[in-house]
Amino acid sequence: MGVVGGNLVTVEIRELLRRLCPMRTLFHHDGCKESHFDPLSPQSWLQVEKCKASKVSNYAPSSIGTLLKVPDPPIAPCFRPLNYVEVLSQIHEELETCPADEKANLYLLQFQVFRGLGEIKLMHRSLRSAWLNASSVYEKIFFGSWLKYEKKGEDLLFDLLASCDKCSQEFGSVDVASQLPTDIGSLSCEIAVACGNGNLRSVIFRIGDDRILCDRQRIADLSSPFYTMLNGNFTESHSEEIDLSENHISPMGFREICSFSLTGCLSDVTSDLLIEILGFANRFCCERLKKECDRKLASLVSSREDALELMDCAVEEDCPILAASCLQVFLRELPDCLNDQRVVEILCCGNGQRRFMMAGPASFSLFCLLSQVSMSLDPRSDITVCFADKLVESSLDNRQRMFALHQIGCVRLLRKEYNEAARLFEEAVKAGHTYSISGLTRISYIRGDKNWPYEKLSSVISSSMPHGWMYQERSLYNEGDKRWNDLEKATELDPTLVYPYMYRAVSMMKMQESEAALTEINRVLGFKLALECLELRFCFYLALENYQAALRDVQAILTLSPNYRMFDGRVPASQLRMLVREHVDNWSAADCWFQLYERWSSVDDIGSLSVIYQMLESDAPKGVLYFRQSLLLLRLDCPEAAMRSLRLARLHAASEDERLVYEGWILYDTGHCQEGLRKAEESIQLKRSFEAFFLKAYALADSSQDQPCTSATVISLLEEALKCPSDRLRKGQALNNLGSVYVACGKYELATDCYINALKIRHTRAHQGLARVHYLRNDRAAAYDEMTKLIEKAPNNASAYEKRSEYCERDLTNADLQRVTNLDPLRVYPYRYRAAVLMDNHKEKEAIAELSRAIAFKADVNLLHLRAAFHEHIGDVSGALRDCRAALSVEPNHQEMLELHSRVNSHEP
């Protein structure tokens, strides 16, 4: 693969991009105006195309700027109330007083609020709370299946827990038969009393040529029709032989019925015979027999094929146990079962009565699950429409309805069914879901009305509490400075929105301000590793012919999402990586380790990820590399990708003891600390290794309550780890951890030695520990200087500025904390500090406003706790109680929050 001239891009890349992006595509921010508008595209994209080779020799950054595109921000199909704190508070209040059978639905609503906020961990906790508080077998099935779906791909975890003699009940199948009530009246007892012993005699039932001898009274006990037939004023009551040949029952089937009348049990027979008996039981109103058939058939459902075969029977014959068992099989196979048209027809078809048979009173929960799974597969599909429509039909109250209407509105908009989408968004807005206005404005603009969207959003902004999404949405209907100002305001109100950064970066690139463009996109990548932003930066570097940096970003993308596709999903990222790599010098194994040390010591986590990705192509031990990769991904707050890397580390472990270490980390990272500790001990028994001792020290420190005793043991374990072979990256971490334990024990000299030794092998974060030692020795100046050394090596590390702020005077503290907020607006300590300073200066409103600024986009218990305390201080009991309840929704067991809530609650009139 060759290069065309000194400043030219490669022919191959240029030709690839030319095929991807026809020349008619120009730089255009107003995606709404284009026929291929996709307002809900899950991945941001842009188009890049180089000019012809003859025109590229005079390359300038602007040449790529005219061919970059940022799509309009997606409309999230989520529940987004204007004041999520108020909604969380209401839910918490209702949970305190509501009947037990309403709690699961309230936790489901709480889940939807956290989903709209993007709080993954809180979503899972709410979902688990819904499962724990399920009051019916249907809710247990639905929420249990949902939890299993959310944890898809984690079968390994269940196996590891089983190897530690521990099972995870929340993911197990529900025994439907044991939990659905069998409300069968006492008719048989009454009949037996009424008939007395005088009527107990035999009767023969003839079916074809077969004659079956039965106990007359026991058959009469089966149902009222049989009792009337055998003991009433009918001919059969005086007959010793009765012909049942025309009643659709075989001799074998009736023999089973006769046996059941004597024993109350059915023997192990085929499903076909059970279905035959079930039909007979329904025709003759034999409730006990019917329930037994229902249970027997349910016990035979073990596969999708079984469920498909028996579901129609369950509905037609009114068998709730069988129907729920079949449905459970389908749900536990999500999302794969939605690729089976037979399953989809069962889930989609049917009226309310059929739905009730499958889902009982929990239809809303069922279709919440199904619509979410279907949208993740294909939000435009007919299946998604079906599930989303049924979600609206099954909504029980206004809050459920507004969410359901908004979600189906988003689906219809994606399908370009604008009239229906507009109707649904309008209904959602009327129900109180203001966020649905964004759907109405998009549709209005598509239809050619350029004024109403702007006016409508301006009206919303002026009449309600402003949100970042409102200004972001209004910016789509503005031009020039007005658009820029709206996007600046959007970032001020909600810095987590990525579209404003992307728009500004592309605009700067267009104006030949490449450095400013990179700085802008780096702002968001500094605290939010969004794939669409990494893709944009990759394109910038490609345009600037900085192939090394472009390679770094595409390799980071592939680490986070191995199957990621770029350029609106048209090209695999792996293909672009192959093309770019041809223009970057190959690194030897030694080069790779050197580059990894360089990036690790400068706290360049994305760069470190890229180097490890490249090293995985070599002959180096892959288990170790995948483990390093998982550590970096955890630091970057990418837990799912980190767990994937840990599983790969286990898969590629070179030995049994190494595999046990990775299994220990998998257990530890999923909250199973004791089981992780056990794996570490098993590994040490096989081989004394650095990683086994390190894992044991880490898990023990986290699990033990006996602090002095634990500290001594952890110190011993870390010292043993340092005696074992390992690379400098890990030994630096061990030294740093050992220093922290010594600090906790008050052994500052030993801690200082650990930190200095860690710094000698370039473990940069040891500066922070050493600064802490200086501070504890009352040398704040030395602590400040030590943190400054860390900042010089990692100038964009928000944590370093935050820590340094503790060691300086107030003016410098404010400057450092403002720098923290600029680098990572999700860190909450700066807001709390500034609010506390304002409160000390008796500026109560300003203090509350500072906290509210962060709470608007970050559901954090510490922010809510402090604001609740401020409300209590100024006598605003209702505001304090609201924040207490919302905070306890975020962290139910927060002790200080519980105490404040109890105190404030006692003051409420």
Tell me about this structure.
It is a single chain. By secondary structure, the protein is mostly helical. It starts with 10 loop residues before the first helix and ends with a helix. The model is unreliable at 1-11, 22-66 and 183-198 (pLDDT under 50). The chain has 51 helices and 5 strands. The strands form 2 sheets. A 3-stranded mixed β-sheet has the order 2-1-3. Strands 4-5 form a two-stranded antiparallel ribbon. The radius of gyration is 33 Å and the shape is globular. A hairpin with a 4-residue loop joins strand 4 and strand 5 (571-572).
In short:
With 909 residues, the chain is mostly helical. 66% of the residues lie in helices and 2% in strands.
Overall pLDDT score: 88
- As residue ranges, the low-confidence spans are 1-11, 22-66, 183-198
Q: What characterizes the major β-sheet?
A: 3 strands, mixed
* Number of DSSP-assigned strands: 5
Strand content: under 5%
Strand order of the largest sheet: 2-1-3
Distance between the termini: 78 Å
Radius of gyration: 33 Å
User: What would you call the shape?
Assistant: globular
Helix content range of the residues, please? Answer: 55-70%
Count, helices: 51
Structural class: mainly alpha
